[in-house]
Design goal:
Elements lengths: L2 E10 L2 E11 L4 E5 L6 H8 L7 E6 L2 E2 L5 H6 L2 E4 L11 H8 L8 H11 L1 H5 L10 H13 L5 E5 L7 H18 L2 E5 L3 H7 L2 E6 L2 E7 H6 L1 H8 L5
Parallel strand pairs: 3-8, 3-9, 6-7, 7-8
Antiparallel strand pairs: 1-2, 1-4, 4-5, 9-10
Helix pairs in contact: 3-6
C-alpha cells in the first residue's frame, strides 16, 4: 500500500474533525474521497501533511510511519499537495512558482521535470514569464498541480481541484489527473465535491460524513449506489 490510514483522529482545539478514519490507497491507484462541506475531507488531507497533527492513529507511507513527522519531512518522503483554493504565489511568475515546487527535489532533475510538467500543461508553457495572479482560475489550478508535481511525489494529494471552475475546464483538469497517473506513474488521492467526475475517474472511493468514513467501494459501485446518487449526484452536488 502506498498509503495506510488507521484509526486517525485529528482535532482543532477541542473540536474533533476526524473520528477514527481508516482508508488505504494502493500504489498506482486514483482514490477519491467525497462528502459534503464540513465533513472533514480537507482536514484529512492536511493531517497527511502534518497539520493538524494526528491525535491518535497511524499514517503509513509505504513502510514509513509519517503521522508525527514535520511537514517538510513528509514532503521529502514523497508526498505533495495541491491545496484547496490553489494558493499559488500571485506575484511570482509561473516559472518561479514551479521552481518553488522543486525546492525539495534533486536539482539534477529540474530541467527534465519542468519539461514533463509543461508537456502536461501546455498553457503554462505559453505563460512561463507571466505572474501567477494574472492567470485564469483554470490556469492557476494547473499551476498548483504542476508545482506539486515538481516535488517528484510518489503520492499526490489534490484538494477540490474542480472548485469554482467552468465545466469545460473541469473536464480538462480531470483528463490531466488521469494522464498524471498514466504517464507520471504517480499515485493520486483526490478530495472532491464533484462526485460525478471524481467517481468516474477513481479506481476506488470513500464517503466521509462528520469525520467518519461511512461507505467505500469501487468508483463504479459508488456511482451506482442509490444513496450516493441521492446525496451527491441528483441533489446538485455532482
Amino acid at each position: 500500500m502506498m498509503l495506510t490510514v488507521e484509526g486517525l483522529v485529528a482535532a482543532y482545539g477541542r473540536i474533533e474533525a476526524l473520528k477514527g478514519v481508516d482508508l488505504t490507497v494502493a500504489e498506482g491507484e486514483i482514490v477519491a474521497l467525497i462528502g459534503a462541506n464540513g465533513a472533514g475531507k480537507t482536514t484529512l488531507l492536511m493531517s497527511l501533511c502534518g497539520r493538524p497533527r494526528a491525535k491518535a492513529g497511524r499514517i503509513r507511507l509505504l513502510d514509513d510511519d509519517i503521522a508525527h513527522l514535520p511537514t517538510f519531512a513528509i514532503v521529502r518522503k514523497g508526498v505533495a499537495i495541491a491545496p484547496e483554493g490553489r494558493r499559488i504565489f500571485p506575484r511570482l511568475s509561473v516559472l518561479e512558482n514551479l521552481r518553488l515546487g522543486a525546492v525539495t527535489a534533486d536539482p539534477a532533475y529540474f530541467d527534465s521535470d519542468l519539461k514533463r510538467v509543461l508537456g502536461l500543461f501546455p498553457r503554462l508553457k505559453e505563460r512561463l514569464d507571466q505572474r501567477g495572479g494574472t492567470l485564469s482560475g483554470g490556469e492557476q489550478q494547473m499551476l498548483a498541480i504542476g508545482r506539486a508535481l515538481m516535488a517528484r511525489p510518489r503520492l499526490l494529494l489534490l484538494d477540490e481541484p474542480s472548485l469554482g471552475l467552468a465545466p469545460l475546464v473541469v473536464r480538462q483538469i480531470f483528463d490531466i489527473i488521469a494522464a498524471i497517473r498514466a504517464e507520471q506513474k504517480v499515485t493520486v488521492f483526490l478530495v472532491e465535491q464533484n462526485a460525478h467526475h471524481a467517481l468516474r475517474l477513481a479506481d476506488r472511493g470513500y464517503v466521509m460524513v462528520n469525520g467518519r468514513i461511512t461507505l467505500s467501494g469501487s468508483g463504479a459501485e459508488l456511482l451506482a449506489n442509490p444513496e450516493i446518487r441521492a446525496a451527491y449526484l441528483d441533489g446538485g452536488h455532482g
